[in-house]
């Protein structure tokens, strides 16, 4: 075709000139009846007499010959390509028979049957070879006796030559570069099927395993990342054989997850939806993503060894279980008597990481015991602590927080730290449960939600295990930073009645280990001796990724600073304890409670699938001081704000136990977050007289800022949170909050 084009470029001017000359001659012939004109036009290019036709015919013949020649050349080229293509297809279809013939020459009949079944599946996908199936077979016979000496210098061809089982890699060595990627995937899985019979039947197979090791780093990645289904399906039948024979080739190591090197090979290289953190927010986001995008492929990366679970029962219901094996089963009876697990879903809900990229209907996979140490925002990828990189399309950061510790304890030395628990995870619950059964004294430092809950839980064990439980905090009463002083004092008495010794207005000066005990020296001179310390002094948001990712951290509240849609970047969202978000009603905030993790995670998941919804939900939180006293709160609840409390006498149904019996769930926020309040009806029952002024059985506490309600606590009043949320959302001034309290029906018996 190139020759035709060159010829045409040279003849085109002549063709155009001859065409013009022909038209002029025809015109003159028609006008003059064939007589020769008296003059010759300046446009004529012929050297002969004007009107001569021989030159014109020659030009036309040249042009026609060039066109015909180009057409013939094109036809022959297309026909030749078709013939070569047909020959390649025929050669490909004939290769399995040739491969079987070569196997028959090198393998015993016992292995031959299984190989014949495994080989034909990948073969049709490969590019054709140059007809060399039989020479590799001869090479195999020649190389086997000297495999240990010839394998190192030839890394591309030696491993297949050493293994009589795998005949395909030598053929692939002569094929185009694109074909080996597809061809080697099945070959990586084939040794998993074939190697155990060889090792059992043939003693010389042992050296093959030794030589397969150097080939391991290059083989598994394509098999895992490009075509996971073939690798998984073919490796599963040999799981039992793998356990019995530790000296298998590298594909066997891919199927096992015993060591970190093998486990790293199972990590997918790409995840459309990547969730960093394995807590409540991540699980809520994964569930939301799958609800809006049923085929979504979600990967959760968590530092913990467990699947996502609920944290509140770790300091509440689990401590009141009668099951001695509760630390193993992690199942508990709710206040309503129903049993459930702390895990959101059973293991069967999740798929393995290597199955994620090949799952037709998508799914949720979890990488446990993995930490993200670096985040490349521009490259849309992360790096794990084992240097594995994973790219993503959209990413959620839900890293939660890390329990704070007192500096005096950190400076006290290793011996003191070993006897200190920072309560946060399942392992912390198991450790504290074991400690409470083996020591005589435990001191809880902190008077907030977690400290007060653990104090009540351990106080219940004080009589059974002869355990002294001490709670100390710098405030005047329990939850002094949240509750108004009168209610804090009442709560303190309630905690004391559970068997807890209270030390208020306590500031720790130093902690030392002496005579196998810990001595806590307070700044006012008091000395407390104990066997173990539980530090419950707050949570520090985990923002380790902020530096590498270039994300903004809020200087006032901590956490990743995000917009109303919980976005930190165009394809990065943050949810849960680590998110510092803008509340359209209360301003910028950061919340560390279960309900916020559920709601923010769910919203982030929706926005990751294109919802673009702003965060407007007022999340709630709750705390139970045993099965008989509990409260729910919403908004800004700060004891430094002015408050108005309206109380009534409690009844048998005004307890956390009764609330769960009504809602049917131990995690009250799971049911209430879906409800909305439209037009609550106030109770017509008049408010009680002042005879119960010291009886805080149940009630409503309003927190005010500029005469507007910004926070509400429902004290032993349950399933009324939508009403409280609507009051805060309206943002109106109320002249008589006693009338507003009637909306919660606290005076009904």
UniProtKB/TrEMBL annotation:
<dbReference type="Pfam" id="PF07992">
    <property type="entry name" value="Pyr_redox_2"/>
</dbReference>
<keyword id="KW-0007">Acetylation</keyword>
<feature type="region of interest" description="Disordered">
    <location>
        <begin position="658"/>
        <end position="692"/>
    </location>
</feature>
<keyword id="KW-0274">FAD</keyword>
<dbReference type="GO" id="GO:0046983">
    <property type="term" value="F:protein dimerization activity"/>
</dbReference>
<keyword id="KW-0999">Mitochondrion inner membrane</keyword>
<keyword id="KW-0963">Cytoplasm</keyword>
<dbReference type="InterPro" id="IPR032773">
    <property type="entry name" value="MGARP_N"/>
</dbReference>
<feature type="compositionally biased region" description="Low complexity">
    <location>
        <begin position="676"/>
        <end position="690"/>
    </location>
</feature>
<dbReference type="GO" id="GO:0005743">
    <property type="term" value="C:mitochondrial inner membrane"/>
</dbReference>
<dbReference type="GO" id="GO:0005634">
    <property type="term" value="C:nucleus"/>
</dbReference>
<dbReference type="GO" id="GO:0016174">
    <property type="term" value="F:NAD(P)H oxidase H2O2-forming activity"/>
</dbReference>
<keyword id="KW-0496">Mitochondrion</keyword>
<keyword id="KW-0832">Ubl conjugation</keyword>
<dbReference type="GO" id="GO:0003677">
    <property type="term" value="F:DNA binding"/>
</dbReference>
<dbReference type="GO" id="GO:0006915">
    <property type="term" value="P:apoptotic process"/>
</dbReference>
<feature type="region of interest" description="Disordered">
    <location>
        <begin position="91"/>
        <end position="261"/>
    </location>
</feature>
<feature type="compositionally biased region" description="Low complexity">
    <location>
        <begin position="126"/>
        <end position="159"/>
    </location>
</feature>
<keyword id="KW-0539">Nucleus</keyword>
<feature type="domain" description="FAD/NAD(P)-binding">
    <location>
        <begin position="274"/>
        <end position="600"/>
    </location>
</feature>
<keyword id="KW-0809">Transit peptide</keyword>
<keyword id="KW-0520">NAD</keyword>
<dbReference type="GO" id="GO:0071949">
    <property type="term" value="F:FAD binding"/>
</dbReference>
<comment type="function">
    <text>Functions both as NADH oxidoreductase and as regulator of apoptosis. In response to apoptotic stimuli, it is released from the mitochondrion intermembrane space into the cytosol and to the nucleus, where it functions as a proapoptotic factor in a caspase-independent pathway. Release into the cytoplasm is mediated upon binding to poly-ADP-ribose chains. The soluble form (AIFsol) found in the nucleus induces 'parthanatos' i.e. caspase-independent fragmentation of chromosomal DNA. Binds to DNA in a sequence-independent manner.</text>
</comment>
<dbReference type="GO" id="GO:0033108">
    <property type="term" value="P:mitochondrial respiratory chain complex assembly"/>
</dbReference>
<keyword id="KW-0285">Flavoprotein</keyword>
<feature type="domain" description="Mitochondrial apoptosis-inducing factor C-terminal">
    <location>
        <begin position="604"/>
        <end position="730"/>
    </location>
</feature>
<dbReference type="Pfam" id="PF14962">
    <property type="entry name" value="AIF-MLS"/>
</dbReference>
<keyword id="KW-0053">Apoptosis</keyword>
<dbReference type="GO" id="GO:0048471">
    <property type="term" value="C:perinuclear region of cytoplasm"/>
</dbReference>
<keyword id="KW-0238">DNA-binding</keyword>
<dbReference type="GO" id="GO:0005758">
    <property type="term" value="C:mitochondrial intermembrane space"/>
</dbReference>
<dbReference type="InterPro" id="IPR023753">
    <property type="entry name" value="FAD/NAD-binding_dom"/>
</dbReference>
<protein>
    <recommendedName>
        <fullName>Apoptosis-inducing factor 1, mitochondrial</fullName>
    </recommendedName>
</protein>
<keyword id="KW-0560">Oxidoreductase</keyword>
<comment type="similarity">
    <text>Belongs to the FAD-dependent oxidoreductase family.</text>
</comment>
<feature type="compositionally biased region" description="Acidic residues">
    <location>
        <begin position="114"/>
        <end position="124"/>
    </location>
</feature>
<keyword id="KW-0597">Phosphoprotein</keyword>
<dbReference type="InterPro" id="IPR029324">
    <property type="entry name" value="AIF_C"/>
</dbReference>
<dbReference type="InterPro" id="IPR036188">
    <property type="entry name" value="FAD/NAD-bd_sf"/>
</dbReference>
<comment type="subunit">
    <text>Monomer (oxidized form). Homodimer (reduced form). Upon reduction with NADH, undergoes dimerization and forms tight, long-lived FADH2-NAD charge transfer complexes (CTC) resistant to oxidation. Also dimerizes with isoform 3 preventing its release from mitochondria. Interacts with XIAP/BIRC4. Interacts (via N-terminus) with EIF3G (via C-terminus). Interacts with PRELID1. Interacts with CHCHD4; the interaction increases in presence of NADH.</text>
</comment>
<dbReference type="GO" id="GO:0043068">
    <property type="term" value="P:positive regulation of programmed cell death"/>
</dbReference>
């Amino acid at each position: 075709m190139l020759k035709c084009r060159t010829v045409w470029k040279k003849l085109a001017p002549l063709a155009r000139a001859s065409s013009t000359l022909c038209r002029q001659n025809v015109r003159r012939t028609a006008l003059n009846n064939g007589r020769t004109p008296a003059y010759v036009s300046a446009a004529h290019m012929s050297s002969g007499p004007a009107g001569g036709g021989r030159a014109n015919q020659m030009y036309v013949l040249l042009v026609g010959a060039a066109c015909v020649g180009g057409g013939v050349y094109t036809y022959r080229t297309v026909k030749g390509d078709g013939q070569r293509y047909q020959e390649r297809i025929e050669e490909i279809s004939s290769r399995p028979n040739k491969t079987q013939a070569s196997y028959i020459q090198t393998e015993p009949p016992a292995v031959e049957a299984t190989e014949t079944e495994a080989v034909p599946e990948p073969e049709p996908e490969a590019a054709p070879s140059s007809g060399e199936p039989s020479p590799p077979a001869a090479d195999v016979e020649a190389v086997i006796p000297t495999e240990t000496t010839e394998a190192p210098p030839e890394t591309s061809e030696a491993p297949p030559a050493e293994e009589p089982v795998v005949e395909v890699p030598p053929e692939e060595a002569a094929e185009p570069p694109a074909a080996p990627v597809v061809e080697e995937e099945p070959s990586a899985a084939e040794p998993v099927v074939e190697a155990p019979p060889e090792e059992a039947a043939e003693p010389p197979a042992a050296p093959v395993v030794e030589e397969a090791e150097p080939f391991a780093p290059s083989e598994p990645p394509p098999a895992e990342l490009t075509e996971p289904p073939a690798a998984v399906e073919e490796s599963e039948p040999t799981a039992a054989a793998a356990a019995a024979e530790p000296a298998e080739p590298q594909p066997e190591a891919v199927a096992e997850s015993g060591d970190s090197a093998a486990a790293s090979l199972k990590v997918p290289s790409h995840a459309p939806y990547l969730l960093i953190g394995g807590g409540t927010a991540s699980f809520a986001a994964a569930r939301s993503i799958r609800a809006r995008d049923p085929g979504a492929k979600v990967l959760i990366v968590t530092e913990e060894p467990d699947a996502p679970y609920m944290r509140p029962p770790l300091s509440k219901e689990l401590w009141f279980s009668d099951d001695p094996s509760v630390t193993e089963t992690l199942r508990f009876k709710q206040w309503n008597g129903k049993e459930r697990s702390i895990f959101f879903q059973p293991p069967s809900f999740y798929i393995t990481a290597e199955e994620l990229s090949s799952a037709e209907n998508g799914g949720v996979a979890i990488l446990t015991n993995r930490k993200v140490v670096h985040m490349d925002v521009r490259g849309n990828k992360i790096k794990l602590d084992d240097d594995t990189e994973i790219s993503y399309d959209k990413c959620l950061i839900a890293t939660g927080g890390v329990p704070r510790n007192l500096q005096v304890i950190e400076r006290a030395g290793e011996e003191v730290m070993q006897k200190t628990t920072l309560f946060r995870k399942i392992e912390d619950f198991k450790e504290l449960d074991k400690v409470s059964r083996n020591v005589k004294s435990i001191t809880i430092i902190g008077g907030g939600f977690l400290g007060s809950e653990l104090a009540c839980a351990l106080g219940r064990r004080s009589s059974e295990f002869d355990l002294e439980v001490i709670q100390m905090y710098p405030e005047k009463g329990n939850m002094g930073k949240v509750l108004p002083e009168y209610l804090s004092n009442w709560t303190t008495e309630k905690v004391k009645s559970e068997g807890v010794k209270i030390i208020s207005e306590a500031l720790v000066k130093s902690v030392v280990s002496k005579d196998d005990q810990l001595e806590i020296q307070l700044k006012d001179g008091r000395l407390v001796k104990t066997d173990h310390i539980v530090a419950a002094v707050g949570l520090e948001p985990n923002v380790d990724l902020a530096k590498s990712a270039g994300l903004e951290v809020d200087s006032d509240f901590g956490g990743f600073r995000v917009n109303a849609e919980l976005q930190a970047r165009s394809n990065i969202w943050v949810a849960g304890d680590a998110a510092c978000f803008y509340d359209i009603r209360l301003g910028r905030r950061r919340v560390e409670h279960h309900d916020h993790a559920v709601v923010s995670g769910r919203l982030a998941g929706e926005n990751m699938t294109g919802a673009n919804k702003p965060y407007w939900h007022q999340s709630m939180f709750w705390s139970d001081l045993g099965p008989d006293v509990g409260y729910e709160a919403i908004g800004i609840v700060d004891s430094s704000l002015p408050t108005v409390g309206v109380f009534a006498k409690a009844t048998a149904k005004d307890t956390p136990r009764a609330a769960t019996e009504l809602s049917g769930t131990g995690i009250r926020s799971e049911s209430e977050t879906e409800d909305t309040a439209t037009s609550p009806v106030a109770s017509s029952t008049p408010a009680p007289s002042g005879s119960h002024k010291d009886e805080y059985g149940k009630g409503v506490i309003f927190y005010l800022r500029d005469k507007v309600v910004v926070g509400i606590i429902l004290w032993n009043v349950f399933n009324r949170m939508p009403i409280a949320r609507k009051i805060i959302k309206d943002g109106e001034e109320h002249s008589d909050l006693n009338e507003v309290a009637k909306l919660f029906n606290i005076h009904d018996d």
